[in-house]
Amino acid sequence: MASVDLRDNNLLGISWVDSGWVPILNPGNVLDYFSERSNPFYDRTCNNEVVKMQRLTLEHLNQMVGVEYILLHAQEPILYIIRKQQRQSPTQVIPLSDYYIIAGVVYQAPDLGTVIGSRVLSAVHGVQSAFDEAMSYCRYHPSKGYWWHFKDQEERGMLASSIQEVH
Is this entry keyworded Cell inner membrane (predicted)? Predict the structure, then answer.
């Protein structure tokens, strides 16, 4: 059984496009587009390259073992999803990463761990901001103890005293 390196390069922050292909993209040629030399997402050591060099059809990928790319979903003319997977046998594959092509621009899809991590970080940031603001209103004096000092209370107090002076 071949070993699988599940630590795929994290390319979430980049995108790739070849504008010459964009008007002619379709499900029949999207894998050829994805396999362009300048695409940083494409692994040149994959089985797709072997099939291409030997001029075989993509059906031969099912009989090979190793990394391969497949067209997972197509919503013409704008969206295509490519999956990179490790084939263990004709019936067993391990998904490694997904890529989506929107209007010809290729992006790596984030994995579930990245999405959850980002959401947790956003939530923690919001809670930390609320805590920092609440702490800015907290006051302490040894003889009085703790109390809350809100800026709008001070403004209301000044407004009330100025109204009393007028009357």
Answer: no
- Specify which residues 105 forms β-bridges with: 102
Pair of tokens at residue 71: 């067209």
**Residue 120: C-alpha distances to residues 53, 124, 161, 167 (Å):** 45, 6, 47, 55
Each domain of the chain, given as residue ranges in start order, spans 13-109, 114-165
Cα 42 to Cα 19: distance, rounded to the nearest angstrom: 17
Q: Examine residue 110 and say whether the peptide bond preceding it is cis (omega within 30 degrees of 0).
A: no
pTM of the complete model = 0.67
- Mean pLDDT across the stretch 42-53? 92
Alpha carbon distance 31, 70 (integer Å): 7
Token duo for residue 148: 């809350």
Superfamily of domain 13-109: Mediator complex, subunit Med6 (3.10.450.580)
| C-alpha to C-alpha distance for 101 and 115, rounded to whole angstroms | 19
Burial class (CB in 10 A: 0-12, 13-18, 19+), 146: exposed
Q: What is the pLDDT of residues 4-33, one digit of tens each?
A: 444 445 688 899 999 999 899 999 999 999
Closest CA to 64 of 105, 107, 93, 28: 93
* pLDDT tens profile 90-99: 899 999 999 9
